[in-house]
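S., here's the first fold you wanted:
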Amino acid sequence: MVISPNWIGDAVMAQPLLQRLQARYPGRPIDVLAPPSVAPAWQQMREVAEVLQTPFRHGALQLRERWRYARLLKARGYAEAYVLPNTLKYALIPWLAGIARRVGYKGESRYGLINVMHHDDVPPRPMVPFYAALADAPEAPLRADVPRPALQVTAAQMASAAARAGLGTDRPLVVFAPGAEFGPAKRWPPGHFAALAEQVVAQLPQAQVALLGSPKDRPVCDEIVAAVAGTAAAEAVFNLAGATTLAEAIALIGRCAAIVSNDSGLLHVASSLDRPVVAIYGPTDPDHAPPFASVARSLSLRLDCAPCRQRECPLGHHACMRGIDAGMVWQALQPMLGGSRTVATDGFAV
């Protein structure tokens, strides 16, 4: 059993751990215990036998409920548990379930609950090898040969999601992911996204621009729609934030020509589907969780005040994101829409 992180991007970046476990234990099924909001991402991974959805409220200990759920897990006969969240409450579940081998990072001093304990002594590490390291002995160094995350979507899933969203299957699709669950500091300004949409449609009149995100991202996407009103891009921009399921969003990303995204879960979904990616970083470190698609650009001004890793700009100017204008992003995006497969993947600093 693998216990999932609570974030979509982290779940995607944890897939190489499952790839390594499957190679080590061929024929042994791997189940994942995940929050409902993250479960659809695991369901698109070929290594997963079954996704079990957690019934717990976010942030709540719910000790009695965890004990009851652990009794159900005990009956399934798991030999090992890999506990990816660093919290005490998630480490309780496999311990209460009597799973003999419980692997994870020390996190919240989880001695006893975790009995194969790894230590993260030199953070921040790139997240893909960070999770994949749990397949090795705790004292082993990080491996350089970690496989890349790879979700899978079918043609039928892509066609169904496009039809439900009202998107034409005969027109190129560009995806924008303007949200960020962490906080507003990670969001590229809506006006910049609107200006980029105008440039995309000016160069590719047949293009459709889909704004994807959760219901929480709807207001930000509404701002983008309002900003392009009265322009040639108005009829080409579709605000789908909160209007799709995560599974449908994954399918739409699977058929897109390219995606422009903040540092968010959908960025890593796109990378795992190997779609061309332009990733915009401000208060977070572009080297910590970079895009890993074959064609990708990471844009960061690398200001002296960054990465601050704050939910809101502590200096009030948000220069790390405002300073990346639509022209910079279009310069990175345009070759991807032209079919180039030679864009650098190591990012750049302006």
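And the second, which I think is the more interesting of the pair:
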Amino acid sequence: MATYAAVCAGAAACLTVAGDQGVRRARLMPAGGGAVETRPRWGRERWRPVVGRLRREWLCLPVGLLLAVLGESVLPLVAAVVAIPLVGRRLTAMERRRAKEHKADAVIALCGGIAGELRAGRQPGQALLSAGRATGALGGSEAAVLAAARFGGDVPAELRRAGREPGADGLAGLAACWLVSVDSGAGLAAGLDRLEAALRAERDQREALRAQLAGASSTVVVLALLPVVGLGLGWALGADPLRVLLHTPAGLGCLVLGGLLEAAGLFWAVRIVRAGARS
């Protein structure tokens, strides 16, 4: 009887929740028929927005706290607090680089999409509308560019304005092809094919250079981790390297000097890699 009562209570609760959502959906139908927003009450969905707001550079804080507890000193925690903005800047630069590359790939896809639409028999404005929505290469200027294409505005000017965004340099070439085809009647599809080929070649060259520099970048990472390996070897041999580094004058001197040399070495190695990438 108790099990039967529990099952009935659970079924009644489910029907109540479903009925409540049905009433809310029915109330929203006259207002426009939008979907009912369901708010998670428990489980991982409740904490996902909070975790999403936490950036990865804040992981320095628990690492510094752990080292501070193990070494019985506040210095690792202070170093972790100082490292948070530096790591944040590095991660932000990496995210911007990935966004720039993604935008460049979208511009290449836009050129190919417009050329395909033109060969299918569509007008340039219709081709730009279709490919622009599909690829998302126009970014924040998408509304202005598509409006110019739909209502006969200055499409090349809007494309050049959209090309000022990071990674969207190819849109300036698209604007030039568009302007030439309008003024002289040249084939827009042929120009876009050449532009797409040039952008693909530039991307392939950039990826090949990155592959060649991968070994140097790995060497920089290995050199940066050598002090951590040294601390691990010290613990494995039965020593207490954190206590020596954080609680003795000689250890503090070695820590400061080693930190400065580590920073100088990383700066110099990263500068060499970046110089190779620019060349």
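Why I say that: Residues 1-53 have pLDDT under 50 and may be disordered. The first helix runs from residue 2 to 28.

Talk tomorrow,
H.
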